[in-house]
Specification:
Elements: E1 34-38, H1 46-53, E2 59-63, E3 72-76, H2 79-109, E4 134-137, E5 153-157, H3 165-172, E6 178-184, E7 187-195, H4 198-208, E8 212-213, E9 216-217, E10 219-222, H5 271-277, H6 286-293, H7 301-304, E11 305-306, E12 311-312, E13 318-322, H8 330-351, E14 363-367, E15 370-371, E16 376-377, E17 380-385, H9 388-398, E18 413-416
Keywords: RNA-binding
Domain RRM: 33-111, 152-225
GO molecular function: RNA binding
Length: 420
């Protein structure tokens, strides 16, 4: 039997999805509103991609920067629409693989001319310009989106502890279907409300921020899981285990002087933290001196870890960062935290063994009080890490370290915040 030459138009669709290049966004272990499409024809236009995918729901944005490599990122408003699109695209891919398998089985079993290959229908759902592609969930790069900090989840502060989850759901479902309500351990005044659709989250924040519930004015912000966009993920069959992070610097602490731009976070108006930081603590003595020497707020990394199972004994996650240079902006602080989280997560991913069982480093809240008269910060800030382990890593990285920025001689101090 002679050698059968595969038709040229099968070359892209017949092969399994190739490994993705080094600097693609990391895949997501959980459903997200963002899909990374691979094997996309490089001649396809943004309007075509948008039109093909809007059959599943409204598309928030399409990023075509990697089109020449066959990569396109699509952002949906609603996570359910992204799930439907992913299922249809992957189903088309599997059907194509089945058709190709049947085709070659027939070729091998017959000595006569091969049967004609039947391509997928040109107008089927889940195809891009009539071509089979591959899709996977990916972590959204929020800096590339208008209002990118809105990923559908609101964090509520200063909430009365008597507010029950059913009552809270009833209030917020007036703006659209709520996917999930979450509580923070040991922080009953704080709740997370996740919407399926980011537009409903935006409406809820605009309408409810500052509203009084059970006699308390609540403060609402978009939840911002910092440090997760660039972190290492072993999240899927196409993750090649690398990112665009400079691995030559893995053994170095990220510099406090980095000036990379990051999305900003609006300073909150939390009364219970204003009471803690209502005065400038740039000078010694007074209330600050009491805080620094009060053992209740000091972080002891040795006492915090239970030796038997290396778990964290102290469950507090909100820290106060003191002696911040007054010219240090909120963007610089966010960048410092992001770099720290990237650094820690890279080391966790590459460490092997039991370290991979530890929670990754990320944060969901930052507050840097600003003196608007003098146009500078007041020398301290608050950060809530998402796990006690991440809190200890932050402490070990920055406590008693020089800031090395603006020729400052200040030494960074990290303690637990009074209110958790």
């Amino acid at each position: 039997m002679g050698v059968y030459a595969r038709p040229a138009f099968l070359s892209a669709a017949a092969d399994p999805p190739p490994p993705l290049p080094v600097s693609v966004p990391p895949s997501s272990l959980t459903p997200s509103r963002t899909l990374l499409l691979s094997m996309v024809p490089n001649s396809v236009s943004e309007s075509t991609v948008r039109r093909e995918l809007e059959v599943f729901g409204d598309v928030r944005a399409v990023q075509m920067e990697r089109r020449r490599e066959g990569l396109v990122t699509v952002h949906f408003y609603d996570v359910r629409d992204a799930e439907a699109a992913l299922a249809a695209i992957q189903e088309q891919h599997m059907q194509q693989q089945y058709r190709i398998g049947r085709h070659y089985d027939a070729v091998l079993m017959n000595n006569g001319p091969p049967h004609p290959f039947i391509p997928p229908p040109q107008t089927a759902r889940g195809l891009i310009a009539g071509r089979v592609v591959w899709a996977q969930f990916t972590v959204p790069v929020t800096s590339g989106l208008p209002d990118g900090n809105n990923q559908g989840t609101l964090i509520l502060f200063n909430l009365d502890t008597r507010v029950s989850p059913p009552y809270l759901r009833h209030i917020f479902e007036a703006f659209g279907p709520v996917k999930e309500l979450r509580e923070t351990p040991n922080k009953r005044h704080q709740r997370f409300v996740e919407f399926y659709d980011v537009r409903n989250a935006a409406r809820a924040m605009a309408e409810m921020n500052g509203r009084v519930i059970y006699g308390k004015a609540i403060v609402i912000e978009f939840s911002r899981p910092g440090g997760q966009v660039k972190k290492f993920w072993k999240g899927g069959p196409f993750d090649n285990g690398t990112t665009n992070y400079n691995r030559r610097n893995l053994n170095k602490r990220p510099p406090l002087s980095s000036l990379e731009n990051k999305p900003n976070v609006r300073p909150p108006r939390r009364d219970y933290e204003r009471s803690e930081g209502s005065k400038s603590w740039s000078s010694g003595g007074g209330r600050r001196g009491k805080m620094e020497h009060d053992p209740r707020f000091l972080i002891n990394e040795e006492d915090a870890i239970v030796e038997s199972d290396c778990s964290i004994r102290d469950s507090r996650t909100t820290v106060m960062i003191k002696n911040i240079p007054n010219k240090y902006s909120q963007k610089l602080l966010l960048n410092m935290l992001d770099n720290h989280c990237i650094h820690c997560n890279e080391q966790l991913a590459g460490g092997g063994g039991g370290e991979n069982d530890q929670p990754l480093s990320s944060y969901d809240f930052v507050y840097l009080p600003i003196d608007f008269i003098n146009k500078c910060n007041v020398g301290y800030g608050f950060v809530n890490m998402t796990s006690p382990e991440a809190t200890i890593r932050l402490y070990k990285a920055f406590h008693h370290q020089n800031w090395e920025v603006f020729n400052s001689k200040k030494i960074c101090h990290v303690t637990y915040a009074r209110l958790q």
